[in-house]
Amino acid sequence: MNPIPFPDHTFLNGLPECPNGDGLLSLRRQVALQGVQHETALWRVESGEAQMVQIIYSSIRKLDAPVGGVIVQGEHVAVLCGAGFDAKIASTFEGGRPDWINPDAPIVNGKEHPIRPGDVLVMHDSMPRHIFDRFLSMPIKRVFFCQNHYFLDGTLKPRERLCDFPIDAFLCVSEPIAEHLRTVHGIADPVIIRPAVRPAPKIQGPKKLQVCYMPRKRTVEFGSVMYNLWFQYPELRETVFASIHQMHPDQVAQRMAESSVFLSLSAHEGLGLPPLEAMAAGCLIVGYHGGGGLDYATARNGLWYDEATPDNLTHLLADTLERLRAEPDCFAALTEAGRETAARYSQSAMETRLLEFWSSFL
User: Fold this and answer.
1) What are the pLDDT tens digits along the chain (362 aa)?
2) Helix (H) or strand (E) holding 226
3) How far is CA 77 from CA 71, 110, 307, 354, in A?
């Protein structure tokens, strides 16, 4: 936003006036500035001008295909902007604006956009070490947003813990991550903000006997299951397997809505959104929880598999498909429990937790 000349001002709710000069001014309730009401905002006063402090979500460079963690960053930023905060995503991506990021989330060039003293930088879990060190040296506030604790050893050196660094607060997306931050990294109070699962589109008629899947993290296991299925269960060779790899979120939702089964190939997940999205679409989940999926995976909402090798996953999937062919509603209780599980990851719950955190942090 453009700098606002600091005018005659009125502070509501008994907040004190700000003296002339530079400094930080935290307005935790309401401020009337040039006749505009702002809720729980942080303002910086520099050389007689008031500027809203930025909340900058540092993101990755590679944005040419949908990335779940970046989608979540975009949802945070869009909610914050809608609530009156000056939030944005910073990336060095050189292509056009990705259409899979919430259009209400501003994106700025991380090489050019200024970060000023007092701004808040939201760091992520797969940050290169030289950038991590650079951000730690800057006169800013730092929030660490961990969406996958399995990535942290790519940034940290052996025997380093996150509690060793000047980071002001920690956010994460699941209880498995929070437990890891508490027990391994000495973070006493990580704040869990679970992402929202988008509502599934409605389709006409019954679901197809179709298996949708995302093979990216378990290509070996997927290949083994497909190979074994072909030769051990020839009667299932006509089953359609539909990938959602690198698809736009709208296309993913449509493919899940028409599929009976989601083959979960989750691995080393901080949460794992695809199984939740498949639950919301009424898919029966068969496969791995990937670690972070323990935030939601139970025997009530899916046919979860946790063996070291994929051999028996072939048999589990084949048995599931054969039972669905004979009786399409035989897993109705599991799919309904899945829908109920996904419904707990709602937009309203995410927004409430997000705004509670930022209002108190600022």
Assistant:
1) 333 222 222 222 222 333 333 444 444 334 333 333 434 446 666 666 677 899 999 999 999 999 999 999 999 999 999 999 999 999 999 888 999 999 999 999 999 999 999 999 999 999 999 999 999 999 999 999 999 999 999 999 999 999 999 999 999 999 999 999 999 999 999 999 999 999 999 888 899 999 999 998 999 999 999 999 999 999 999 999 999 999 999 999 999 999 999 999 999 999 999 999 999 999 999 999 999 999 999 999 999 999 999 999 999 999 999 999 999 999 999 999 999 999 999 999 999 999 999 999 99
2) helix 219-232
3) 10, 15, 38, 10
Which residues, other chains included, contact 148 with Cβ-Cβ below 8 Å and sequence gap of 6+? 69, 125, 126, 177, 268, 269, 270, 292
User: Under a CB-based contact definition with an 8 Å cutoff, are residues 349 and 76 in contact?
Assistant: no
Among 262, 252, 149, 245, residue whose Cα is nearest residue 208? 262
Which pair of tokens denotes residue 174? 């699941």
Residue 266: both structure tokens together: 């989750």
The DSSP result for 184-202, as a single string, is: TT--S-PEE-PPPPPPPPP
Distance (Å, whole) CA 300 – CA 281: 16
Nearest to 155 by CA among 132, 123, 186: 132
The DSSP symbol for 302 reads -
How far apart are alpha carbons 66 and 61 in whole angstroms?
Answer: 12
Give the sheet arrangement for strand 208-213, strand by strand: 240-243, 208-213, 259-265, 284-288, 303-304
Q: Are 250 and 277 in contact (CB under 8 A)?
A: no
**Three-class SS of residue 27?**
strand
